Amino acid sequence: MFKPVPNTLDFPQLEHRILKFWEDIQAFRKLVEKNRGKPRFSFLDGPITANNPMGVHHAWGRTYKDIYQRFQAMTGHELRYQNGFDCQGLWVEVEVEKELGFKTKRDIEAYGIEKFVEKCKERVRKFSEVQTRQSIRLGYWMDWENSYYTMSDENNYTIWYFLKKCHERGYIYKGHDVMPWCPRCGTGISDMEIATEGYQERTHLSLYLKFPLLDRPGEHLLVWTTTPWTLTSNVAAAVHPDLVYLRVRQGNEVYYLAEARKEVLKGEYEVLGKVKGKDLVGLRYRGPFDELEAQKGVEHKVIPWDEVSEAEGTGIVHIAPGCGREDFGLSKEFGLAVVAPIDELGVFLEGFGSLTGKKASEVSEEIARDLKDKGLLYSTEMYTHRYPICWRCGTELLFRLVDEWFISMDELRWQIMEVAKQIKWLPEFGLDRELDWLRNMGDWMISKKRYWGLALPIYECPQCGRFEVIGGKE
Predict the structure, then answer these.
(1) Confidence at residue 191, expressed as pLDDT on a 0 to 100 scale
(2) Residue 195 — very low, low, confident or very high, per pLDDT cuts 50/70/90?
(3) Which residues make Cβ contacts (< 8 Å) with residue 454, sequence separation at least 6?
(4) What average pLDDT does the segment 247-268 reach?
(5) For residues 345, 397, 314 and 327, what is the CA-based torsion angle, rounded to 10 degrees?
(6) What does the H/E/C string look like for 7-58?
(7) Architecture of domain 205-381
(8) Where are the alpha helices (DSSP H) in 242-324?
(9) Per-residue CA distances from 109 to 47, 359, 450 (Å)
């Protein structure tokens, strides 16, 4: 007679029984020995950050990896079975800051950078052990005695060697550019970080304001912005040369705006005429914050820009090269002044009047009141849009003019694309996406103004700007 089968199963108990059985018979070691010397299948696990216990998404991914490795082992391959832990970076720093109750980089510096780095190492050691136990409990077969750690000397010196080779080939340079910047973390955020995880829907105060034309009394450009703090650094207004712009009268004032955006006008108005954007190019206007010390000597003018859209706003874009990447590019093209308003914590620098010492993210209402007092505010509205945020701490990003180190992708992108074409992609459309990303990616920003990460081995002469890259410990 067969023994009765229970109606219910205690799955955790069953799993523990299986794990003990595997351990008792040394199943994993026997499989490794059985396949030793056979065709090689090298699997290197892309590392989880050793920063917290594993999440469900980690377990899901590791289950797929385990299945794939078991299949390769069953078909007679010798496997590498190497697990890894991502150890450095803001993920770990932010969690340690939370533990210590820190709010900014200044708190870390007051505490002591060396002590802070040691706390980061302790957290990595703790959670690498936790994740190892979780993975074993999951039934994931790996060589757990041979995990790699990205904070190891071996890894760091290998990257130094790579950077030296990049330098020898002329790929590394120090760039003066506007970058997405996290004011809480006090560091730049790369395009890749923003593209993958860096946008959330946020609502901000947007302003419609007037730029008074200097040679046409009573006439104004009507401009829209969703970032009022950047108006302090305005140097130009951009129009699309081929768009049609209306010249309209409301009361005693005349406004210019794109014909397709006339619905933003409040109340009745009279159309006085139409002009092309190219007819507005070269006009000079009074800036919204000309009284600031930082604006001294700046001449404001209208410039052409084919990227101006009539989908939203007024069809006239305010340009602040110290606060926007495209704006900075236009400053090079048209020789515009560059006014950089904020420090690494997103606080206004000296030269910005009552705003100096205040956070750029907190001055929208104050700027609106100031513009109203000066007779330059046309209207306001709350605007909901997708806005870039720091994927590590959730803080809204600002765009800031900085000096950072980059690897130029001009030559490298094509070399990487050729290698990508040699890989078998599953599914096949992955190759198209990879090639498109490589084709359009900007230069790779490799510097972070933080503490727990790879120390860049770059030594720069402060007098002449020449620099050397060290390729190893010796």
Answers:
(1) 73
(2) low
(3) 88, 156, 159
(4) 96
(5) 70
(6) CCCCHHHHHHHHHHHHHHHCHHHHHHHHHCCCCEECCECCCEECCCCCCHHH
(7) Alpha-Beta Complex (3.90)
(8) none
(9) 29, 20, 11
Give the pair of three-digit tokens for residue 435: 């090639």
Concatenating the DSSP letter of every residue in 142-183 gives --GGG-EETTSHHHHHHHHHHHHHHHHTT-EEEEEEEEEEET
Quickly count: other Cβ atoms within 10 Å of residue 438's Cβ. Answer: 16
Residue-wise pLDDT for 269-323, tens only, equals: 999 999 999 999 999 999 999 999 999 999 999 999 999 999 999 999 999 999 9
Among 205, 287, 278, which residue's Cα sits nearest to residue 240? 278
Structure tokens at 32: 């490794």
Compute the radius of gyration of the chain from its Cα atoms.
29
Least confident of 190-194, 227-231, 392-396: 190-194
Nearest to 404 by CA among 460, 350, 348: 460
Q: Assess if CATH 3.40.50.1980 describes domain 11-151.
A: no
pLDDT tens track for 84-109: 999 999 899 999 999 999 998 999 99
The 10 Å Cβ neighbour count of residue 195 is 12
Computed over every residue of the chain, the mean pLDDT equals 94
pTM reported for the whole predicted model: 0.82
Q: Where exactly are the structural domains of the chain?
A: 11-151, 166-188+398-469, 205-381
Residue identified by tokens 């990487």 is 416
Question: Per CATH, which fold does 166-188+398-469 belong to?
Answer: Methionyl-trna Synthetase; domain 2 (2.170.220)
Spatial strand order of the sheet with 398-407 comes to 187-188, 172-182, 398-407, 444-445
Q: Rounded CA gap, 232 and 229, in Å? A: 6
